[in-house]
Specification:
Length: about 475
């Protein structure tokens, strides 16, 4: 509801039937691509607010130091670890190579096929045929088109090959430098009334932390992770058919997407449960994890709208806390910021238009119209005069007529009637306006009554002059008699 979008009117009739897609994370993605350092600092600062990362682990998350992983300093090098290292040295175009968009395009064929075959019992647990898997693997490495719907391959072949692809990546899909952060997220629990930690996971904080952590994943890793978790989510929804719950799927995929490379289960020890539970949580809440938090969207949007200061999550919590009665709610502040920006833009455009109009009037040849326009500017110096860009000579002040006809003219023209007090050095007092004339003046507020007002006024003057003439003639007759 807080998102701001622009509407574009398109007159192309062929495009009107197409759905309109609005990406609420538009400014987030724009900031990530155009200013990655600013984006990373913004996201990591909010991650450290949720989980406690010491200096070394924070430097690893930022990529400033090489990650220190469990089992890295161990001298034990069993046959299993050596075998995995040798298998990863056999790099192909897709399998065993660093993750690229080309590799994701090839593997997405496997994911699309599995979406159509989620009912196979023991999917991702039952191994497929090794010969068919090798044929399919060679086809993917060579980049040839594959028709998985031809019936040549079984769904277990495709599922096993997908796990093989993830296991042969040089580093896990969730990357080595995020390993310690995932362990800390698994430890996020609720607090009781006394402020003590409980054993109940804090799901909201875990979701928020994963949303932030996924934002700073490399783009290919994030794209494939979204495809994979969506597939596992849909598979878990069909667990009544395939017997694969979210926890069972996590046991199959945690070693491939989260465990560090070249480590065994003995190296991880008590962290195995945390990692498996963490992948289970990702599968169950996968539909929420690839959306940026609201405050990250707002910070990214304000960054491109020219905001002077970024708003952090702590500031948003402070604004919406019930005890802060003196502060306005967040939504009202957003509206006020938008209204302020709109008013400033409108004021700026108005001033520019007035400056242009003032220059035009100043360059006009001397005439009565020019003097009238300049007087209009001088009447409202604060609202209309656009500054001192163009020097103007002060127009002589015109003395207003105080006659009754002048009052009517000013009333019709819309200018306020100002009754000035008589100054001590003023000329003799002007004739007063009778009650009938004031009443007539009020009735003449609109141009529609102007003709009637003039007519009544002229008739009144004629009658008055006639009465005076009769009185004068009568006085003459009486004197002669």
């Amino acid at each position: 509801s807080d998102a701001v979008c622009n509407f574009v009117i398109c007159n192309d009739s062929s495009l009107r039937s197409q759905p309109i897609i609005f990406n609420p994370d538009f400014f987030v993605e724009k900031l990530r691509h155009e200013k990655p350092e600013v984006f990373t600092e913004l996201v990591v600062s909010n991650i450290t607010r949720l989980i406690d990362l010491p200096g070394a682990e924070l430097a690893q998350l930022m990529g400033e130091e090489d990650p220190k992983l469990p089992g890295a300093n161990s001298t034990a090098s069993g046959f299993f670890r050596s075998l995995m290292s040798l298998k990863r040295k056999e790099k192909g175009v897709v399998f065993g190579s660093p993750l690229t968009e080309e590799g994701i395009a090839q593997v997405s064929q496997l994911i699309e096929y599995l979406h159509k075959n989620l009912r196979a019992e023991g999917l991702f647990r039952v191994p497929g045929n090794s010969i068919r898997q090798q044929i399919l693997k060679d086809a993917l490495n060579s980049g040839t088109d594959i028709d998985l719907d031809s019936g040549e391959f079984h769904s277990n072949d495709v599922a096993t090959l997908l796990k093989m692809f993830l296991g042969e990546l040089p580093e896990p899909l969730l990357t080595h430098k995020h390993f310690h952060a995932h362990l800390k997220i698994a430890d996020l629990t609720l607090f009781d009334e006394k402020g003590n930690k409980t054993s109940t996971p804090d799901k909201e904080r875990q979701i928020e932390a994963l949303q932030l952590l996924f934002l700073i994943l490399p783009a290919p890793n994030r794209s494939l992770l979204k495809l994979l978790l969506d597939l596992l989510y849909q598979t878990a929804k069909k667990q009544d058919k395939n017997k694969m719950s979210a926890h069972n799927l996590a046991l199959m995929f945690a070693p491939h997407i989260l465990w560090p490379r070249n480590v065994t289960a003995n190296d991880l020890q008590e962290n195995i449960t945390k990692l498996n539970n963490g992948v289970t949580f990702m599968i169950k809440h996968s539909q929420k994890l690839f959306k940026a938090p609201a405050y990250i969207r707002e910070c990214a949007r304000l960054h491109y709208l020219g905001s002077r200061a970024h708003t952090s999550k702590d500031d948003l919590d402070l604004l919406t806390s019930p005890g802060s009665k003196e502060l306005q709610p967040l939504k009202s502040q957003k509206r006020s910021r938008l209204d302020t920006c709109h008013q400033e833009e409108t004021q700026q455009r108005t001033e520019e238009a007035l400056k242009e109009l003032f220059r035009h009037v100043h360059n006009m040849p001397d005439s009565a119209k020019k003097k009238k326009l300049i007087r209009q500017f001088n009447k409202h110096p604060t609202a209309l005069t656009p500054g001192s860009d163009v020097p103007t000579s002060p127009a002589p002040r015109r003395t207003r007529s105080r006659s009754f006809s002048g009052l009517i003219k000013r009333k019709v023209l819309g200018t306020p009637v100002i009754l000035e007090r008589k100054s001590r050095d003023a000329t003799p007092e002007p004739e007063r306006v009778s009650k009938e004339n004031v009443h007539l003046l009020q009735k003449c507020g609109s141009p529609a009554h102007m003709s009637q007002a003039k007519l009544k006024f002229s008739e009144g003057r004629k009658e008055e002059s006639c009465r005076r003439m009769r009185a004068h003639l009568l006085s003459k007759d009486s004197s002669s008699l």
